[in-house]
């Protein structure tokens, strides 16, 4: 048996990834914020100070006070409670849209990239066509046809996210399928299915994951736009976009109502983007690079 | 060459042409190659880079379909088999690639990579059993079990090549092709790996094809050698014969550059340096491809392609003016 | 002079548009028919009699096979006929024609703002990496992408419109009647629209310029003693120009989509608010027409951008 005494020592694996994470303030802030928000969204029915739908016409448009930390809206509903109640749908909406985009887009990208040829060209044409529709417009169209509602709207958004994922996955698949280890495993008589799922997919999906992280914020903004227009979350359920719409109507009377939901959307979107950055850095084996 | 009954590989007039570029130029990587490999033999295929030897290697294990000509593995043409039978046949004819790093899935642990062929062919009753077999094979090539759970990027080139060997042999193939098996490795490790190949060949009863540009390695390891130039075989002979009586000018030039390969009494003391560079495989020279660098070129060499014909028992050459034993080239 | 290589690229690219356009028109067409409810019923409005429903069905041709309907519809579209709205009784084409200019104004205006603000910021950031300028630009980019642009619009209306009275809070002035008034009225919506555009332009320009500045080619020039500013101007900006051209198309398309919400915020009578209104009131032909319009514009803008890139790409030898 050949001895390996002259072999180079194997390199040690250091847990550097965790160190980068903990040292990056944006990473920590984003993830903590999102965790807290998720908890609020899940526990809202139990921890919110008031029933978000409780109408109290004797106390409309109240200024912030000890009883109502952010005041009340035009129907006397407590703003803080409505904010909390809106967290859940917002998070759910973004995650739903991105999930649809990924689960549809990645397999299609794999197929187009791996098989190539006519299949690839036809798929790419369809993707190009879908990419030509501005997403909100398309979602509105769907809402008009199928009826407004959060799920319909986000499914439409998800479908429109699909081509982006498909394109990305297709590009990385085309690179990966040229790799030597794909040839090596073909030499053992592996079926194409096995090759794609076990070898191509894990190596090609990275860019899609990063994209997913970035798209969460887009999904959130899309949901708030739809809800603002009245085509997303339907009243009386509360949503941040819907709150903005109502507050806008009463802007001249109580302008400060506009700030809370808007800032909520802004901070959550920032947190999503921060998360996307974290994911990107974590998956990049070369370490943080500007 | 006659088809021997126990030919494990039979290659007939195989050509592999690639289309490149926008204007549809063809690279004639392999341009008419025929030979047989007997079971249990060790064949060395040598040539410069651009000779088409790596392409031929892939054809031998059915990773690349020839543009023309046929290949028979164990008497059967893999491209005439139904897909699942073709896949099953794959397992008996394995290849080790030149780049040990790129041949392993970076996201799979070493153990998983070596175990995978077993999973694909359904050997072993459970994952446990397959793991045991994989670890045994790894130990056999000199990788101890604590490295089995590492990822490829944590290991050195030599270790990775051993892992590739373990993976290739775990299904006990009949034929193993080593494409530049040691080129990417440190000189200090090359000898180790070569010895490993030799041991394993004996132990597993392999037919071994060693593809390399390194004449010394080929002659040390093989029983017979095929010399390739620009997509064709120019000479085929057992090593012993080649030592004393190489007939093709190209072979002579290669041998002269490796003084160690020739016993002292046959060294003429002259190094034959070939002029020029290897021509482009897109448009090889007319007639004999080697004529642009051949020291003994004649006008007829540009007009007619030399036939690959038998010179003596198991000695074939493609040249209009094959050299005699004692002949020395200018 | 355009080389043959480039001409081939361009020709190929133009040809690729045709199948995409066909698919786009098909998707626009199919939208109405996705409804689980009979489209004739939807279009009929309140309490229709069976006779009315039948009349609608025949008028719109719903009783024919889908392919035939698509063919007829496409034929009409190519002849400039987008059918007639059930609600307004006006031809869709004239509705769109009257409303689109207002939309186009704020989109173009928003583009201009995005470039004027974003380009210098991106370039400045790349010229001094790691400095305050760089960090500021990165912050702006992060903000621009995360902020809900329609909320920005609302805040602008509140502060600059109502409280400070600098700009009209709502509505639009027709450009043809009063160009300066129109631009003045369009300023707040354009600013709101420009948010993500600024972010995108800053990011892309900064990245592309950084790449050029740190490339080996430029490094050797620096080593030879060329001052940094000369390098910046000659090599960097050419690259920047190309990047800008490619980003502009993307930014324009995004803004076009965003008009839907912005026009609602600012009560601008453009195609954006028209499609929202039509959706809520189930006026499908209008929805269909506007979706088609937007999609065709996006495809055209993408084509123009690709062509511009093909013409300017330094990698293709002329």
N-to-C CA distance of chain C: 8 Å
Share of β-strand residues of chain C: under 5%
Low-pLDDT stretches of chain B: none
Low-confidence stretches of chain C: none
Helix content of chain B: 25-40%
Give the distance, in angstroms, between the N- and C-terminal Cα atoms of chain B.
31 Å
Quick structural summary:
The complex is a heterotrimer of chains A (290), B (330) and C (318). Helix content of chain B is 30%, strand content 23%.
Can you put this structure into words, describing what you see?
The complex is a heterotrimer of chains A (290), B (330) and C (318). Chain A is built from eleven helices and no strands. Chain A is an all-alpha fold. In chain A, helix 10 (240-249) packs antiparallel against helix 11. Chain B is 30% helix and 23% strand. In chain B, the strands form two sheets. Chain B has an eight-stranded mixed β-sheet with strand order 5-6-7-3-8-9-11-10, with helices on both faces. In chain B, strands 2-1-4 form a three-stranded antiparallel β-sheet, with helices on one face. In chain B, 45% of the residues are buried. Chain B is globular, with a radius of gyration of 21 Å. Chain C starts with a helix and ends in a 6-residue tail after the last helix. The chains are: A mainly alpha (290), B alpha/beta (330), C mainly alpha (318). Chains in contact: A-B, A-C. Chains A and C meet through helix 4, helix 5, helix 9, helix 10 and helix 11 of A and helix 1, helix 6, helix 7, helix 10 and helix 11 of C.
